[in-house]
Specification:
The chain crosses the membrane at residues 30-48, 60-80, 92-113, 125-148, 154-176. Pfam families: SBF_like. One of its GO terms (cellular component) is plasma membrane. It comes from Probosciger aterrimus. Residues 1-20 form the signal peptide. With 202 residues, the chain is an all-alpha fold. The protein has a domain at 84-186. Helices cover 77% and strands 0% of the residues. The protein contains eight helices and no strands. It has helices spanning 2-15, 23-55, 59-79, 88-113, 122-131, 137-147, 154-157, 159-194. Helix 1 packs antiparallel against helix 2 (23-55), helix 2 (23-55) runs antiparallel to helix 6 and helix 4 (88-113) runs parallel beside helix 8 (159-194). The longest helix is centred in the C-terminal third of the chain and has 36 residues, at 159-194. The radius of gyration is 22 Å and the shape is globular. The N and C termini lie far apart (62 Å). The relative contact order is 0.10.
Length: 202
Amino acid sequence: FQGIVITPLLLLLFLGSSSSVPFTSIFSQLFMTVVVPLIIGQIVRRYIKDWLERKKPPFGAISSCVLLMIIYTTFCDTFANPNIDLDKFSLIIIVFIIFSIQMSFMFLTFLFSTRNNSSFTPADTVAIIFCSTHKSLTLGIPMLKIVFAGYEHLSLISVPLLIYHPAQILLGSLLVPTIKSWMVSRQKALKLTRQPKAPVKV
């Protein structure tokens, strides 16, 4: 929700006057593309919730297939563009920067959620690490196509996002065992500290 507002504002700030940045058009298109479907889905869900719980349609599999199709078509559109002009060295640098950014975000969220005066549980920390740092192509690509509509180097702009999405999946799968063992050990330690101490007999 913040990105819908912040993205046009940043464009307006860095690119200059409103004549060069169609703020109203960008905001309205992002609102119709992102917010309206979400609101409609929440309203419809309220009326068909019982039916969904009875039938249990395979929305998880459908969602994964749609996401895979979006990733595939976006990769095809990006690298089929003859104007992309991206050499191998630049691609390697971009991959390194994206992985560094992702690791930095995860580390900072871990420090934030585990500070001394934090009220977050270990499970909360795990959720914060993964949810707050992960971004999806399903939102990023429509935002790019709306904000940079007609721009000839749109494919080049989408490359970092195309790398960020697989990077978060790869890093997440690699870090799951480590984070899980930390969470389990942390939960056990918290249980031991909360147990009442037995009275000492004199």
